């Protein structure tokens, strides 16, 4: 009986720890909130916000969630995870399945304004290619996005 209680306690402890870790990952609600906030900030101070995003300001990076801003041609204007992308034309960038997700993203932005998009991308934490969903909004002439990994 004592062993059963111990085993149950250990299992509950492990499961509790897993749920805490899962809470460290961004949610769809988090992505929508940070994109909306970034869109408003860009309208108020375009250049300053682009610099903050690329500078990994805590307002724009939360754990595995970060903001990316493009112009409508697919040029990266700011990137909260990889500053080397800034200034690059990413329109032909394809995911692991060959999907040109930036091209599709620009088309969706012009057609819908606000949308979710699925693709695959390398998780900076695990270094594995994982399914990812990005929430994006057209903000003036910019497309603002933040994505969540489907773990």
UniProtKB/TrEMBL annotation:
Entry keyword Transmembrane helix: yes
Protein name: Cache domain-containing protein
One annotated Gene Ontology cellular component of this protein: plasma membrane
Keywords: Cell membrane, Membrane, Signal, Transmembrane, Transmembrane helix
Taxonomic source organism: Solimonas aquatica
InterPro entries, alphabetized: sCache_2
Main location per the UniProt record: membrane
Gene3D superfamilies attached to this UniProt entry: PAS domain
Subcellular location(s) of the protein: Cell membrane
SMART domains in the cross-refs: Cache_2
A Pfam cross-reference name: sCache_2
Residue intervals of the Single Cache domain: 23-103
Signal peptide range: 1-22
Membrane topology: Multi-pass membrane protein
